[in-house]
Fold each of these.
Amino acid sequence: MKVFDKGVSRRSLMKGGVALTAGLAAPHFFTRSAHAYLNEPTGSTVTLGFNVPQSGPYADEGADELRAYELAVEHLNGGGDGGMMNTFSSKALKGNGILGKKVEYVTGDTQTKSDAARASAKSMIEKDGAIMITGGSSSGVAVAVQALCQEAGVIFMAGLTHSNDTTGKDKKANGFRHFFNSYMSGAALAPVLKANYGADRKAYHLTADYNWGYTTEEAVRTSTEAMGWQTVQTVKTPLAQTDFSSYITPVLQSDADVLVLNHYGGNMVNSLTNAVQFGLRDRMVNGKQFEIVVPLYSRLMAKGAGANVKGIFGSTNWHWSLSDPGSQAFVKSFGSKYGFPPSQAAHTCYVQAILYADAVERAGTFNPCGVVEALEGFEFDGMGNGPTLYRAEDHQCFKDVLVVKGKENPTSEFDLLEIVEITPVAQVTYEPNHPQFAGGQLGTCNPGA
Amino acid sequence: MFGLSKKDGTLFLVVIGMTLFAPILLNPFPEGSELAQFNAGYPDLMQRFVIFGIFAIGFNILFGLTGYLSFGHAAFLGVGSYAGVWMLKLLTMNVVPAIMVSVVVAGLFSALVGYISLRRSGIYFSILTLAFAQMSFALAYSVLTPITNGETGLQLALDDPRILGVSQVNGSIPPTNFFGFEMRDGFTLDIASWSFTFNVGYYLCAAIMLIAFYLSIRIFRSPFGIMLQAVKTNQQRLRFTGVNTRPYTLAAFIISGMYAGLAGGLMVAMDPLAGAERMQWTASGEVVLMTILGGAGTLIGPVLGAGVIKYFENIFSKINDNVLYNWFSFMPDALQDAFVFMIHPFIGKGWHLTLGIMFMLVIICLPGGVVEGGQRIAKLFRRKKSGPADSGAASLPNSTPAE
């Protein structure tokens, strides 16, 4: 290969090298030093970035999240009926935007891929000057975007993310999560399962083979084993799997009498449907009725699985049938704008947007460090989950968790789940250094300047 | 100049000019105007332009010259990324070791994959590379979670050892740098209502892209390059004349794998996270699209193709109905609704659709890609001026893409 035999002389190489060094050594300026913090809003408006999955497996959730954000912006700017701003315990928001600045927003598509989500968030920060990024419907994306926001110096308000790691080993000072997590699901479900199915059960786990699956399996296994259940086997299933028959057959041959499906979205719809087709629900093992449990439920999933969800227990962050004034106000304003009730993804995103705006009002600045201070240890009520605490140690919200069950006689296509129990917050609270959450550090807030 | 022919030299100078002034060229619309939506001159996207440019240049060395269509090139990009992040985690936040190790690791991996896959040609070769890439993706996504951190993606942490650097500065992860120049630094030039951002990271990527581009010109014009083209034209005849083609194709495969690794290393140098989706078959397909869209077998084509696709992905996907209503706000309500309704499927999440339509149009009307479009326009002007002249665009005699 005679590629370099002529042309590049030592002299020209040296010259090039010197020129390059000179170019790089030229004094560099810091854009960020011009302001107290990154993307400080100087005009009459402030820009928020809504980064949600618009394509890919969670596009339905993403669309609902975007609806909730649009509603929140409308309410923040004084439009509509004000929704949960009226029931919110903090009265700092006046309906004139945030700190008097009109709220504007940009949207992006995470595609439920870490890379795409980060690219989209980066363009919001660098191009559109977004001061806060929020949204997302998977833990992988939440963790990736949270780390990006920490490095860049803006606030990240997580959307739907249920893995322990978001506020566990991957927690960040600039990131906040309102949604509940795997541990809380396990802790809330276990007593209900014990009451309904007894303390002497043998569980078989099918787990989606990725981060969220692992933490959920661990949480449910630990909580159920603590009350006397045995875990017969745990099997990981590929995320892209659509036919679970080959995973269901071994369940029939084992002596397990409970099947736990640590699956979400389309995975859960398919695995549950397969399990029901194999007659698992009519089976009797060890003289007991065979049961199926789905740790994380959503209305959109229940809709996909149809009649198969009847009587199956699971947990959820929020449900539109809650009767507290906050939930009612939200369902009313969401319903009158879009014509159907909001999902739990919509609820958590709406709440996150309002909480951020409120924190800015209380802090009196958009500076991320001021916002972090205002949110840490913040106690509030009237947002649909009862009294809630944003814990300072890990930026996780602590609130009541709902245990739900597939409804036997749904009255409409939205009325698929019924609330079995509202698990009080004390029962799902854990220490910040709990083994399932150990290993991470918050670090310090980064204002990007 | 630089040992290039006059034509190649001119092309190289044009590319240098374009990359140096990209922050200005890509921000043609004043801040705050309605058209500012179409500005692409922000650091992240400019970095992506040149990084994927490198990726496509490398792919073109294999596909454009030998005609071997690899459907698994994203695997090398991904392997390079993981290697790069591990360097940043273990060694130092200086990007140089990260980039070098990315290239080496991707080169080794491509030697392995190439050695096996190149036993077959045509569709079988494509399927083999695709299988390897999907295997790598599956491994990275779950089995190798301790190394790759699975679905979440491998990222830096506050307690990384970083032997030659510091683990954390005041509770934050230190930024990636090039001998002290932080990748995210830069300065903004405000002229009237225009605002141009000059970013250190972008210029590092741009410099490396220029080197990569220069190398690819030299490879195209070298005896080795001619041999590769002979492989593409008629491999059987070459074998009959007693030439063993395998070393040549394997070398081309490894070089293009190293280019992919370089792109992966630069990606993590700019944004220190490596996700498994980087290796998925869609990512491999993307680089094929980039090369064909720009013009396979041409020098500048792949870079243009990469630019077009990244532009669509990042700019069109961010236009939402709200923006549309703003544009058409001068119209009466009903007409406004009608226009938004008509354009809605092509923007936001519909950017794939727009790109697909454009890809089809280019392939049907301009089989040689964007480069052929440029050539035709150039020809048109030249004919008007001084009668027929040879098309001076810098491309090889463009045979139809093989396989």
Amino acid sequence: MNIQRLSISGAILASLLFTAWLINGDSRDSQAIAFSLVAGGLFGYILQRARFCFFCITRDFLEQRDSSGLLALVIALLVGTLGYHAVFGLFLPDPSVGRLPPDAHIGPISWVLALAALVFGIGMALSRSCISAHLYRLGEGSIGSIPALLGALLGFGIGFATWNTLYLAAIQQGPVVWLPSYLGYAGSALLQIAVLGAIALVLLRKHQMPSATKPTLGPIATLFQQRWSAPIAGLAIGFLAVIVYLRVAPLGVTAELGSLSRTAGDQLGLIPSRLQGLDTLAGCATAVKETLLSPNGAFVIGMVSMAFAAALPAGDFKPRLPSLSESARNFLGGTMLGWGAMTAIGCTVGTLLSGIMAAALSGWIFAVFCLIGVIGTWKLLQRTHS
Amino acid sequence: MLNLKQSLITAAGAAVLAIGSLAQASEYLVSTDWLEENLDRQDLRVIEVSVNPGVFERGHIPGAVNFRWHTDLVDTVSRDIIAGDDFQGLLQDAGISDDTEIVLYGDTNNWFAAWGAWIFDIYGVENVRLLDGGRSKWEAEGRPLSVRPSNYTAGNIEIGEPNLELRAFLPEVVEVARSENPEVDLVDIRSAAEYEGRVIAPEGVNELAVRAGHIPSAVNVSWGEAVAEDGTFKSADELREIYAAAGVDGSNPIITYCRIGERSSHTWFALSKILGFDVKNYDGSWTEYGNSVGVPVTNLAGTVWGGQ
């Protein structure tokens, strides 16, 4: 274990906590920002340690029949489903009254959602990461993620430009389906557990153990050096998702990016000054920036800095200059990620993770079409390469 | 370090408390101190009416009930306050009976809590008071919050006919606007920029008007003038002075308005409940008046359609 690297990580953690302490004040806003900074740090740490990248875990399964990453996702969704339902019981004791629990990412369903998820999936395969993974990879020194994230900003802008047309064509009339309002909390939790359990069984059956088994390391090495196992990563993400929803808002990583893009587009006069209905929909909503630091911005800052703090002692911090064609591909993929995330009001974190945990049909639909986009593009790329 | 910060906060809180407990501006206000001491009383019902959704659910005053202004306290189809029957059902579900004491509070300086108090008053519900300083003062003093939902057995309150003496409608306001020597004082509580006609509405709001400016003869006293630094209402003497400086001394009946009738309820509360003046709230406000055809408008900025 490299003591120097570990102490840099320690210093980053200390400054993150100190900043949170400074921000935290009497107002709820400041408390939400301080909390989000720490929670984002934890999220970035977990994602990096588990290498929880939605594209990579899918590719591991497709190429090597290694299910462990996808299992981590399923475990996170299971834990999150249970936790969300427990919180819902507090927020909205009776789910059948026609209200939705506050802030939960339960979106309208239409062909636009399916298309946005599909485009997002294609963007994932092209840029080899989703937005959350590009963010944590920034902490690993992935310079290639910068063009992808710049592309995402552009994609958001295109999303704003096409929003009013798509909203009036389909989104506005789209039904908002929240499973507990039909099945009750017990019914919806049981249904989701059954579906997730079935997916887990399939993944376990298809799983082939990686050929070389890793030696068991001590607890310190496990924490700082070795890749976290699927159950640990899944449990940690599910637990964090529930706590963050209880305290601030569902997990999401695109609201701040979208707000940056919307503010820029607004000032340049490139996007419609009135985005119909957008501010009334639940999800990773974006607003024209009024304050420098929002809870979601703090979350992303915490995430990137702690991903760096996690990558350093593990030896995962490897800055590398991408080739021009790789940068171009990442930029194009990133644009698709941005457009998809804006149009679906969230990405693999905000709509898939936080949506499915909230028992929103929109989360499941995003998952299905995103996966189709990823697998389709991956197969196409395989064919052109071979 | 944490302890240091904690003790600083406690000291600051104690100082605020000491100032806060010196005076309660009106019998229609309760202090945070009083409320915390009386929370266990069975005949007391605390109701949160906050502007922002999701605030109540993430922590409310223990035992409080949530009234959502945008669906619970209005007619959801036509532009109107909640119908009497629906309001009675809402109160009964919250376990309110004829002898229940009610305390309202909310976020953003009690804007919608005051609006709630106006609706309670219209329907003749008695024993209704406002938590002075609202939610932000309660939080700033580090008082407990709970996330547990409250469940009460249905109450038996019956409410009467709406008292329209508290509510101004467009024809009455137009009559004041047209009269040479109005015997009603209009108080516009919006920002100076809205009052002068420089903007139609603050940035980011969806409910707009076609014309900018204000109702002729209205004076501009922003709602915030009535609020002390800690979010409580200023003392009755201070309030009397502030409104008198604008020519509103209670000798005439008063009509308050804003953009949608919400913040003007805050001023309605200050003028009627603290100063005891005869006040109506014009809830149609500028979104009705500024869209009406043929009514007189004063526009100091000379804007047309929001431009020059």
